[in-house]
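hey can u run this one w/ 3,4-dihydroxyphenylalanine bound, need the structure tokens asap thx
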Amino acid sequence: MKEKILELQKKFNEKLNESKNTKELQELKIEYLGKKGPVSELTSMLSTLSIDEKKEVGALINNLKREISEEIDNMYNRLEMLEINQKLEKDKIDISLPASKIKVGGTHPITRITDELEELFISMGYDIVEGPEVELDLYNFEKLNLPKGHPARDAQDSFYITDEELLRTQTSPVQARVMDANVEKGPIRIICPGKTYRRDDDDATHSHQFTQMEGLVIDKDISLADLKGTLEIFAKKMFGDDREIRFRPGFFPFTEPSLEIDVSCFKCGGKGCPLCKNIGWIEILGAGMVHPNVLRNCGYDPDIYQGFAFGMGPERIAMLKYGINDIRHFYTNDMRFLNLFNRVNGGENNETK
Ligand code: DAH
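ok here u go:
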């Protein structure tokens, strides 16, 4: 028995020294001290011995048990420490490394102009209304006093989807929709921003897609003076406090009279420069008094209600304000262009006022 105990101890020591990690040690502990392990086996053999032998061998077995347990625990602590240190070494974080830069985007110039316009008109009590981009011919043209075959339709070459549906060529149909939908046929004060489409060949000043912002005011006793006052506020807000506006006669089928509206050049103050082509004025939008036919087509009595309407192009405003010479820049997603309007470049302030 004594020999067996010595042999077991020797074998255990060998295995202990071969253990490479805490997992192997745990397995070793189970192997030697478990219920079916060699130590238990020795203990069960005690019953075959005499009382004196039992005492001696029993003590030896207990010793062996304690030693195995202690040595495994010691070794376990050492290996555990080693493993923790190795893990720390491997997972080391280098806090001196520079952080990767976060790219800050900016607001697209068209969105910026649209936001500015919305803010201005909301402050004057206007509501914002949007309409469908796939529009009925009825609203895009007919209700706006452009019946089928009207020559002015040619000025707005259209993308038709069916005989009666097209991609809207202007945001004016939204004014017809809002008037139509107004059950009480009462006053209206709206702006209608949105995307528009025309079958144009793209070049520096034409794009098959662009945006517009329509304005419409319907009420009793509305006159050209109201239109003038409103657009003067608009011109000063968008192009500077010293701006003046002037009216020139124009033609739009949905307004009578129709007007082209110019703003005094914000670069030269009206003296004449390349931006205003030496005229001192820059054409900025179309407007007029709502044509009686349009009022009638949408259920309003022109003897009771009048209105003014205007249509402006955020692209044109942005091009003038920021000195952009090609409308295609807005739609070709060239980062060199878009980055001019990010916050890092101070895009909020780089206007050519
Ligand atoms: N819809 C017109 C266009 O695309 C712009 C316009 C002009 C709208 C005069 C109006 C207006 O409401 O009164 O050319």
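Confidence is low (pLDDT under 50) at residues 348-353. anyway lmk if its weird
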